[in-house]
Write a structure and sequence with these properties.
This protein is an alpha/beta fold. The protein has a single domain, classed as TIM Barrel (Alpha-Beta Barrel), CATH 3.20.20. Helix content is about 40%, strand content about 15%. The protein is built from 12 helices and 13 strands. The strands form 4 sheets. Strands 1-13-12-11-10-9-8 form a 7-stranded parallel β-sheet, sandwiched between helices. Strands 2-7 form a two-stranded parallel sheet. Helix 8 links the parallel strand 9 and strand 10. Helix 1 packs parallel to helix 3, helix 7 runs parallel beside helix 8 and helix 11 packs parallel to helix 12. The relative contact order is 0.13.
């Protein structure tokens, strides 16, 4: 395929995305997401993400990439997935009339090198991981660095020029910086220390765990401050996936006292946190070793999302201490009835139906529908969003994903 033909393929797809973005349904979805996140829901909302595209995209004509230029091939895949989701997977994902280009930002990480082994799971993008400890004692804590955030403006400009020249006349190019602050310290910590080692240390070396969390929190807070001071923040109340949930549209961000035309502040963005490894850790230890540090981060943000895979139904009283908490992850392992009973006030329940329903020998539509309807009833009037995610396999059968979306779309409507 010639260079011109490669460009023609990508430009045609970009034009199709732009056309879909003009449909009135996109503004209606934005209105409904805003109502949900403002705690004025009109109906539950639906989102699908983290699909094992590699299992089926070479066998589905609409998804099969044809570009021979590798850089354009990656863009083509992205565009094809957007179009396929919009046309074949009934959900509430918004098709934006723009192409987002991330700023080239360096020095914003912890600086710790992870030692791991990966095992690929077939054609899926999901991998199994085994981690070897790289932090073992107090002396190793210094490996967690304080960030030195740098924006490489020239590289950002190069990226923008590339996409402007490719299809900027079809899809407006939008430069974006950091859009939210999701503090996943415990996800990182156990990769560096080992899972079993970290959980044992909660009891046997609590001072060591506190020292680790203090260092990580200070590093993350420094990162946030530098991003704000350097003007590297972008709007959260758009098509950004908030925490482990769904779209962040809300009328409450930026806050009403935001400087007109000025730089965004941390207080104008979504924040959040999750300590997924704490599923079986007591509420007292959860507060001591996770939440007190996480609240330092979340106190700086305008609205917050909490949780991912950990069940939180017995820890709702703890979550009441989170500043401006708006959305809570209700994982497959969460007791929805207890979560609603213990909530104390209104949140958006960010439901995560089990993706295992898509991985069996056959897809059981009736069971999937029963699960969604039960979750709605058990939520006891809480605003709800449903997110099917972490889909490691669908046995190469895209039709079961389409069937799930059609069923879920009918339920929420």
């Amino acid at each position: 395929m010639t260079a011109s033909q490669n460009r023609d393929v990508v430009r045609r797809l970009a034009g199709e995305v732009a056309a879909l973005a003009q449909h009135p349904v996109q503004q209606e979805r934005i209105r409904l997401w805003t109502a949900l996140n403002d705690l004025k829901p009109e109906r539950p909302m639906l989102w699908i993400t983290e699909l094992p595209w590699g299992e089926f995209e070479d066998s589905v004509d609409e998804l099969r990439a044809v570009c021979t230029d590798e850089a354009l091939r990656n863009v083509e895949r992205n565009l094809r997935r957007k179009l396929f989701t919009a046309r074949r997977l009934p959900c509430d994902e918004v098709v934006e009339n723009c192409w987002r280009v991330g700023m080239s930002i360096e020095g914003a990480d912890y600086g710790v090198t992870t030692s791991e082994q990966q095992i690929q799971q077939g054609a899926s993008s999901i991998q199994s991981h085994h981690y070897e400890p790289v932090l073992r004692d107090f002396a190793d804590i210094e490996k967690i660095r304080m960030p030195e955030v740098r924006h490489h403006a020239a590289e950002t400009a190069r990226r923008v020029d590339f996409f402007e020249g490719l299809f900027g006349d079809l899809l407006p190019i939008v430069v974006e910086g950091t859009r939210q602050h999701f503090f996943t310290a415990w996800d990182d910590l156990v990769r560096w220390t080992g899972v079993t080692e970290a959980l044992v240390d909660l009891s046997e070396r609590p001072d060591y765990i506190h020292a680790l969390m203090r260092r990580m929190t200070d590093s993350f807070l420094s990162r946030m401050t530098q991003l704000e001071e350097q003007g590297l923040l972008s709007r959260s109340n758009e098509l950004v996936r908030v925490g482990s949930g769904a779209a962040g549209y809300t009328s409450e961000l930026p806050q009403s006292d935001a400087p007109a035309g000025g730089r965004l502040r941390l207080a104008d963005q979504w924040g959040g946190a999750t300590p997924q490894i704490f599923s079986d850790v007591s509420p007292a230890m959860h507060e001591e070793f996770a939440l007190r540090y996480e609240n330092e981060v979340m106190s700086r943000c305008g609205l917050n999302y909490y949780g991912c895979c950990e069940p939180v139904h017995n820890k709702m009283a703890l979550l009441a201490t989170v500043p401006r908490l708006r959305k809570i992850s209700i994982s497959p392992w969460c007791d929805v009835v207890k979560a609603a009973e213990n909530a104390g006030r209104t949140y958006v329940f960010s439901h995560k139906p089990s993706p295992a329903i898509l991985a069996g020998d056959r897809f059981d539509t009736a069971s999937a529908e029963k699960d969604l309807r039960n979750r709605l009833a058990q939520s006891d009037g809480m605003p709800c969003e449903f997110i099917i995610k972490d889909i490691s396999t669908v046995r190469g059968d895209i039709d079961r994903v389409i069937a799930w979306c059609r069923m879920a779309h009918a339920v929420v409507r």
